Amino acid sequence: MKTVQMTLDADLVIAVDQAAKKLHTTRSAFTRRALREALEKLKVSGQEVRHRRGYEQRPVKDGEFDVWESEHAWGEP
Residue ranges of the domains in the chain? Predict the structure, then answer.
């Protein structure tokens, strides 16, 4: 692990400390988790943008997925 120095607003530090205490963890652990979650959210958001652009460039054609209809297993109602 690497130690880094960050500058944060005082009210943010207080909120993080309160949340960390409530979750029975440390400020550092809470922050690591929050950063990982933010990075994952950014990654997923980027994938969604790429998928949307792909479908805009090559829209689904009528009947394109009909071959898969027989593969659906919806279960009993």
Answer: 10-56
